[in-house]
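Researcher: Please predict.
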Amino acid sequence: MTAVPYWAKMSVLFAEMMHSISTKLDPTDFFSVVKPPFFTRDNQHDSSEFLGYLFELLQSYEHCSDRNFDYTRPAVLTGASRLRMIHPHVQPNSPPHVSDENAESSQTRRSLSPRPSSSAAGSSSSGQKRLSSDADVMIPLKKRFRLSEATFLRRDSFIDSMFGGVLLTRVECTVCHASSLSRDVFRDLQLAFPEKPEGWQHSVQSLLEYYCSKESLSGDNKYECRDCGGLQDAERSVLIETTPKYLILVLKNFKFDSKLQVQTKLMHTVYHNHSVTLPTVRSQAVHSAYNLFAAVIHAGTTLDSGHYYTLAKDNDQWHKYNDDEVTLEDENHLIGLNRSSTPYILFYRRTDIEESTAPSLEELPPKLQELVMAHNKHYVDTVRKIRLTRP
């Protein structure tokens, strides 16, 4: 990947993070080529949107040849990728049995449409066969069910192999009891907060269970049942069919206030579980447990202001990464946060995945070794000049 646009820039940044002798690194060079075009200077932007854009960008260049190598080449996202970035709630391959109103009105609960940080993939006949076998877990044999065009993880994608999972969504008509199944590839789960009494303590685990719980489709949000031939009341539920190695959870702490016409911040009391279990189909139950290893914190009271910093675990020790300051932290730091400092993006590692060891400088490709050594030499020369100019 070191000879591919954007991946190469990330390789340099990561190599310097691991083997630089300087006390801090400037990510400007990396950010200058991966900055989303919709990000503007001097404005605060959504960190999950940046992560989603970065995933799309990196995946779009995973198979570029060496002759296309160009550090300064602008990002070009085409087709479904561009559509998702411009209109994140539009799903290019949405199942034909779900009406547009149904898809749009359910956004407060969960999004079946790919967000900037999720993806849709192509279909395969072999996947249809696999889906019907898993479907027996969820639906009694007497009930009819329809399979929508399936979506799949890209087996040749590093991004999907690390962060990709598959949602299995079931919708059952309450009149004729016919069921339909659809799949969606995701790289994160956007967790909304259910309506609860003031002072209620949510937890990440309860938000996951709420995300996958049964949801009634009625009123203006009825389901278009092909068997009945019209809009009917229905129930929808979601399970994880394929679990990712690394699970990214985005807590939807921001809500649009229609009266004030602004995004307000929800400062709920939340227990941030260090371990969670995904609601999965039976065949994935052995791969459903995850441990927390990082969290992006938003400190502030509105979407348009505040400050982001990160907590991350390295070799069983938690650290706080706050701009250019790195300090040791206790693992219970998340419990002691004030109401305006809310974990926004949580990163979990599946329990069967071991924390990898960083390669030594000698194990890096020769070009990366040269860049790191040149960086270190420049740092030493800079420090020497500073010392010589001091009185």
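Model: The two ends are 47 Å apart (CA to CA).
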